[in-house]
């Protein structure tokens, strides 16, 4: 169990508060036996191959009787390339960051449809807030989002006369453009950093499929990003929403691993952190 451990591993265990008992076994602060690097890797792979549990569940099961450094990060890195988990288990998809809508060059250039419902209790609770014009922009929140006034009870039409329709629509579009520029400038002031793509063109991604098994299917190579929320794949004629796609974990989990029990290098007793040898 601990015979495979190098001198650096044993020294690092002592740095983490482990002790050596009377029978020569290293134990953690809670008295649990410590697993060496090679033993921990074999145990994680053997447990995951039978049940394909997520990393959090496996960490809870192992930590009941054992301990080894960087347990959560080690388990997550080891099970990341598992194709069975990628296709069958529920995994988080891409998260679209807030405030990333690009500034339109003209009114109604991009339409955003939100299907979020307010619920039965407060369905009309904030109707007044959404339909009240702003004193600075002259437009209501509903008009800023949809580009039209909020629908109300039926009444005889009070629209503008036909001879002034072009003038009124021009004034409306001018107000909408000024409002958009003012709001976009506030976003740039609060978050001046440039937008970072969630996924690069040419990478492979999964598409969520919650209605049948497998839950995720290989989507294909990303060919382009439509706007900022739609991904265009080589296997689909239609765009896929970003929230319905999942990133493909790297084939080499060592690329994103934290400094921990993976491949420890023999060092002297003075080192205080794994992966950072003393000068």
Q: Short summary of the structure?
A:
The protein has helices at residues 7-15, 37-51, 55-62, 71-79, 83-88, 127-131, 141-146, 165-190; strands spanning 19-20, 26-27, 204-208, 216-226, 230-233, 240-241, 245-247. The protein has 279 residues and is an alpha+beta fold. Pfam families: Integrase_H2C2.
Provide structural commentary:
The protein is of the alpha+beta class and 279 residues long. It folds into three domains: 1-81 and 252-279, Endonuclease III, domain 1 (Orthogonal Bundle); 87-96 and 196-248; 98-116 and 127-146 and 164-194, no CATH class. Helix content is 30%, strand content 10%. It has helices spanning 7-15, 37-51, 55-62, 71-79, 83-88, 127-131, 141-146, 165-190, and strands at residues 19-20, 26-27, 204-208, 216-226, 230-233, 240-241, 245-247. Strand 4 (216-226) and strand 5 (230-233) form a beta hairpin. This is Gypsy retrotransposon integrase-like protein 1. It comes from Merluccius polli. Residues 43-90 form the Integrase zinc-binding domain. Residues 248-279 are annotated as: Disordered.
